[in-house]
Amino acid sequence: MASLRYVQHAGVITLSGSWAKKLKMIGVQAAMAIGLTVVSAAGALAQPAGQVVTIVVPYAAGGEPDRVARIMADELQERWHQPVIVVNKEGASGSLGIRDVVQARPDGTSLLVVGPSYTMNPSLMNDPSYDPVTSLAPVAMCCSGGFTLAVHPSVPAHSFKEFVAYVQSHPGELNYASPGIGTPFHMAMELLADGAKLQLTHIPYKGYGGALTDLIGGHVGAMFLPLIQGVSLAKAGKVRLLAMTDAVRSQLAPDVPTFAEQGYGNVDVRIWIGLLAPVATPRDIVVRINADVADILRSPQGASRLAKQDLHPMAGTPESFAAFIAKDATKWRRLIAERHIQKH
What we know:
Elements: E1 5-9, E2 12-16, H1 19-33, E3 53-57, H2 64-80, E4 84-88, H3 95-102, E5 110-114, H4 117-120, E6 136-151, H5 160-169, E7 175-178, H6 184-196, E8 201-204, H7 208-216, E9 222-226, H8 227-235, E10 240-244, E11 270-278, H9 283-298, H10 300-307, E12 312-313, H11 318-338
Parallel strand pairs: 3-4, 3-5, 7-8
Antiparallel strand pairs: 1-2, 5-11, 6-9, 6-10, 6-11, 6-12
């Protein structure tokens, strides 16, 4: 078959090789009829044309991974000119949805959006159903945001230094809430307790809503919250914010210092959201999706939509995301083992 080569200049596809003269004669429409699809780089299809692309979110609707997945779906659908849908498949700590993508066809039509629990959960399971490093192909780290340490106003601490002093002088007395054992909110507090040598009593709830309600009601003294929600509650006088996990202070809460600037850089836990694909997905498809996601994250519209969730674009390579996953999984595996955190 005659060869085809194309180069894009300012949005125009220039063809060369023996097909060039033929295309001039028979036109683009006839060329497409014999199986040649011409698309611009900005709208290039990474998947088989005409097929529905499914982004699986292995958690309940409404959380950060779900919101980011829907932003990505909207933007990618516009670029790819094919349907991109989001499917929430929660259960078994995210394993059900993850398994679906692990077993899916590696052709770019099945993608997975995950958050921090993706690297935590295997070390919390007696019989893990996936390996965060090897079971899937990292495509892109999409964005990240910070947690904040919030306390009920009745807790006698107006700074993180005072919080540490209070807990150390009252070991085991302060209760803290989380949406459940092994959730990022729980693991963030375990990381803090490990670094600051604190004895706290964990009260796990069956979901985020109950934990937050009891923090606001003063039935528990502390809890890690997404920064954007913590700021809203602090402005209403319902909680007090003592520190945040981001590397730098947030414009949403410029008066809330980071853990790092207070000497606790080990409290490095973020709300990160990433995109993965079946492990055998061809390299060219992974690279193409990564490039499109990066373009979305760098665009004013994409960055603006993330900023409303207090999430920061993190457009990097598949390799940098793979390195992050490996490092993060190692960190949580060590912490879970050293602190004897309950497995299930």
